[in-house]
Amino acid sequence: MPGPFEIDRSPPSAELLEVAKQELRETPEVRAAAIEELRKLLKASDLNFPDDEEFLLIYLRPTKFYPESALKLMRNVAEFNKTYKDLLHNLMPVDVKPVFVDHGLINIFTNRDQKGRRLMVVQMGEKWNTKEVTEDQIFRALYTIQKLAVLEPATQINGAVVIYDFKGMGMGHVKAMSTSGAKRLLTFIQEACPLRMKAVHFVNEPMIFNMVWSLFKPFVKEKLNKRMFFHGEKMAKLHEHIPKEYLPANYGGTLPALDYGGKEWYPVAEQFTEFITKWNTCGFK
């Protein structure tokens, strides 16, 4: 069993493989055929991506083992990396270390939820010092986390859930966000992220949150819109989606209040610099 602050790279259990079969069409036969076909498609394309089995599965699982769809996702990733090259080119964990270690704006829970999904909380209110951390830096940190999450077979299969916490949000936070930043984040989530985003929960939104939502709403597509939930301070509404026993006391749960954060998680990122360097080569030939 991996420790609380470790990437779980263990092979899928029989139970997890059954979920993959039911939800992703994954069987040994389908997997082998899809990997072979995706390799052929990749070789004949203008894309430059590693073609080892582990890497191809990162793209085949969220696209339910349809090679053409996996290739399209790869192309979306390449296009996204090209569009935001100034922000993402050769991005390494050390480049976003302050966001994790000094500010603790992003935290991955050490436990999964009732469906085996990874849980992450992003602090967009009182913990966000907009004079020290920009919107761009937060995005770079989220992009780095994605590179680590895709390494986990359990997360590839079960997906991830994000909680955005706006407690203490003020006008300064609203002004620190932009339409271009909102578009970038939603393009990433909806088109260029090889993770199954199963739900996005918003909690502790103040009245001025409507100003923030007006930035994001135009870019939200129907599929994601159905997976977005707004709870305010009513944690009971959050519990309808994630039961209390899987949440810390901070969110009305029965688990201990969070006493860890990005500072504890950051060393994990440094353990996988070889994979992240490999990931950074993805793009067009």
From TrEMBL:
CC terms in the record's Gene Ontology section: membrane
Residue stretches making up the CRAL-TRIO domain: 96-259
InterPro entries: CRAL-TRIO_dom, CRAL-TRIO_dom_sf, CRAL/TRIO_N_dom, CRAL/TRIO_N_dom_sf
SMART domains the record matches: CRAL_TRIO_N (SM01100), SEC14 (SM00516)
Domain of life: Eukaryota
GO terms, molecular function: phosphatidylinositol bisphosphate binding
Name of this chain's protein: CRAL-TRIO domain-containing protein
